[in-house]
Amino acid sequence: MTDSHVYMGGQSNATSLTLLEKVKVKDQSSWERLVTLYTPFVYYRCRKAGLQRADAADVGQEVFVTVARKIADFHRDRPGDSFRRWLGAITRSKILDAFRRMNNEHRQAGGLGANPRLDQLIACESDVEELEEDKEADRIIYRRAIELIYAEFAPLTWKAFWHVAVEGEHPRDVAADLGMSVNAVYLAKSRICRRLKEEFAGLIQEDPL
Predict the structure, then answer these.
(1) 209 residues of the chain, pLDDT tens digit each
(2) Of 49, 32, 45, nearest in space to 84 by CA
(3) φ/ψ of residue 36, rounded to 5
(4) CA neighbours within 13 Å on the CB side: how many for 36?
(5) Domains of the chain by residue range
(6) What does the alpha-carbon distance between residue 125 and residue 75 come to, in Å, rounded to a whole number?
(7) φ and ψ at 51, to 5 degrees?
(8) Interatomic CA distance for residues 186 and 184, integer angstroms
């Protein structure tokens, strides 16, 4: 979904910066990583709104072009501000635009009446409450973040983390199954959670699974 012409600028070597901070200083690889992180969320929102697959993909392209243009304007100054909420508002706007285009094309082809889904979306002036209550969206983003750092850790570390953090198993049981000490299991979870927080601070909900 990413536009290869977006963010063709200097690279940032400040590895201590979070992903969002790197994107704001126009680091191309970080921009691509951000798009990879949030593409499933945008697609999910589009499909949930009623768009077909091809239309959802087109809207996703429009969303990230807008994000690239406006990312410098995103700030978390007030309680409740979040990147997902900001991105969700952009996505909703593009979804509405897509339904309006479809309605216009339908009318030009001789059809009558508006798409009922468009009427429903317009009637709901904001889907902020829906976004805040949408735990599935949080899980989608969190799981993609996990995928992005998977290669940085040994398989056994991942197994311990996954069983405890994702499957909700007790560390003592996981330690017995994997032949690890209980302390090693806790350490595995801590290391991966810390890595997620370091890179994706401000972008993902902590432990939403």
Answers:
(1) 444 334 433 333 344 578 988 999 999 999 999 999 999 999 999 998 889 999 999 999 999 999 999 998 888 766 667 888 899 989 999 999 998 888 777 665 555 555 666 555 655 555 554 555 577 888 899 999 999 999 999 999 999 999 999 899 999 999 999 999 999 999 999 999 999 999 898 888 766 56
(2) 45
(3) -60, -40
(4) 15
(5) 1-133, 152-209
(6) 22
(7) -75, 145
(8) 5
Length of the chain: 209
Q: Which two tokens stand for residue 59?
A: 């809207």
- What CATH topology corresponds to 1-133? Rna Polymerase Sigma Factor; Chain: A (1.10.1740)
Q: Which amino acid is at 75?
A: H
Residue 108 CB-half CA count within 13 A: 6
Residues 6+ apart with CB under 8 A from 149: 192, 195, 196, 199
User: Looking at beta carbons, which pairs linking 113-120 to residues 24 or more positions away fall under 8 Å?
Assistant: 117/49, 117/50
| CB contact at 8 A, 90 and 67 | yes
What tokens does 38 get?
């949030």
**DSSP collapsed to 3 states, 136-195:** HHHHHHHHHHHHHHHHHCCHHHHHHHHHHHHCCCCHHHHHHHHCCCHHHHHHHHHHHHHH
Q: Which residue has the tokens 């889904």?
A: 117
- Amino acid letter, residue 5: H
